[in-house]
Every structure is written in structure tokens, then in C-alpha cells.
Amino acid sequence: MRQPLNWQIGLMGPQRASRYDSQIWNATRRAIENLVFYVSEHLSVHKKPTPISSTLQKVYLENSIFLLSLVSLGLSIILQMDPTFLEISMYRVKDTCMFKDNKSVCTYLKSEYRSRPLEVHTGVSEIEQVMNIAWSRLGYQDPNPEMERTINTVFVQWLEYTSIWPLDIACATFTIGFDVFRRILKRYGKSHDESLMFGMIFLMLGASVIRSVEIKLHFSVIQNINEIAQSLNYRLDEMATKKNAEMEVVICVKPPGAHLLLCITIVFLGLLQITFIMDYLDPT
Predict the structure, then answer these.
(1) Higher model confidence: residue 1 or residue 18?
(2) What's the rounded mean pLDDT across residues 20-39?
(3) Nearest Cα to 251, choosing from 29, 92, 107, 90?
(4) How many domains is the chain built from?
(5) What is the number of other CB atoms lying within 10 angstroms of the CB of residue 200?
(6) Residues 201 and 167 in one domain
(7) 218 and 251 fall within a common domain
(8) What domain of life does the native source organism fall in (predicted)?
(9) Exposure winner among 21, 90, 134, 189, fewest CB in 10 A?
(10) Where in the sequence is the domain holding 36, given as residue range(s)?
């Protein structure tokens, strides 16, 4: 039995609508997929370097690492020959002070004492000499026990500095040795970048820690000596005030300057090397 025409037309309307909605959904989905694919490809092209640029970057980085290693080793050696590790100035009255216009005029004789990091015994003996001169001007003949204890503390801290210094040089030397060995293996087609580079990182971290300890010991040495000098200057000033005269001896300890700046520079170079190595191992 044939169905009425009006019923057939009513049945075809929903079918056409559902088919039309399906086509729109498929077209929208394909458009979104194409857009996501285009964006991902565009980002990946800009993020991943080309093989040529990556190779050149690695060459620049490994040459920079080797150069910084040589500079760090050279600066560490120069640091131990720096005479500004400890600087003490002593001013002594040269002649009898004269009064001019109701003011005392004195002529002071300046003596400078400079010590390198490795000159422990010479530096400590000069410190004792300066302190004993000031102590004798106060009218004391027997040594001050507190001052002697502080000088012994300075001596121990200075010895600790000189005892860990060879470890600093050893870490810097082994870092260069690892880099040279890595280059030799790479030349013969046996690349071991990861293992040797990680070994270099540990050596650089160790050297940075050692250099930080050296900075701390250097500060402690200068601080302890400055405490003795300030104590003696205070007593000499009190004695001069009671006598209404000028101080016979003045001791000045120079604060850390170029030596400290050089130490901080070496630590910074070590951290910069570690950054370059990490960038070399993972350029992306």
C-alpha cells in the first residue's frame, strides 16, 4: 500500500536536517584539526634549531668552556701571588710633637706591611711585631693573653686557607684535563660528552665551594686582625687624651678590595662554565 505524499515529505525533512548537521560538524572538526596541526608545526619549526645552527652553537659553547677553564686556572694562580691579601699600615710619631697656634703638630712615619696568601709565617710574625709595638707604647711589658689568642686564631685560619688552596688548583686542572680528553676521544670518533661533561660539572661545583670557603676565611683573618687593631687604637687614644697629646701609634687594617673582587670573579666564572655545559648537553 502506497503511503501518502505529505507523509513522505515530512519524513525527508528530518533526514536532510540531520545530514546537514553532520556535514557541518565534520567540516568544523577538520578545520580545527588543520588549525592545531598548523600551529604545532609552526611552533616546532621555531623551537627546534636546524642541525647546522645546533652544531655551530655546540662548537662555540665547548670553546667558551675551555677558554673559561684556562682563565679560571690562571686567575687562581695569580690570586696566590697577590700582595693585597693582607695590608696593615702603622703610623708612628717620628719626632716630638710641637705646638703651633695652640695646636699640636706631629710628624708621623708610615710603615706598610703586605702579605701574600701563602706567606703565613711571615705575615703572622709581622702582625705580632706591629701589635707588640703598639702594646709597648701603652706601657705594658708582658704580652696580652687575649691578643695572643686572637693572633693564634688568625694563624690557624690562615693555615686552613693555604691547606685548601691546592684543592682549588687541582679541581681547575682536572677540569681542563677532562675537556682535553673529551676532545681527543671526539677526534677519534668516540664521543663521551655526557659522562665527561657531568664530571666537569662536579669538579666546577667543588671548586666553587672551595673558593667560597677561601673568601670566608679571608674575611675572618682580616676581621680578627682589625678587632685587635681597633682595641689597641682605642687604648692609645684614651692614653693620649689623658696626656692631652696626640696618639703615638695608629694601626690601620685595609678592608678586602682587589683580592676579594678577584675571588668573586673566579666563582662567577665557574658558575658560568656550568651554565654553558648544561646548554651544550641540551641546546633546546
Answers:
(1) 18
(2) 62
(3) 90
(4) 2
(5) 23
(6) yes
(7) yes
(8) Eukaryota
(9) 189
(10) 1-48
Q: Report how far residue 156's alpha carbon sits from residue 163's, in angstroms, rounded to the nearest whole number.
A: 10
How far is Cα 36 from Cα 15, in angstroms, rounded to an integer? 32
CB atoms within 10 A of CB 256: 18
- pLDDT, average across residues 193-205: 86
For the chain, state the CA radius of gyration. 38
Domain's final residue, options 16, 32, 48? 48
- Cα separation, 237 vs 267, in Å, equals 41
The answer to whether residues 145 and 245 belong to one domain is: yes
Selection from 205, 216, 213, 197 nearest residue 171 by Cα: 205
Q: How far apart are CA 244 and CA 194, in angstroms?
A: 73
d(CA 269, CA 75): 10
**Mean of pLDDT over the chain:** 80
User: Which triple of cell numbers denotes residue 202?
Assistant: 662536579
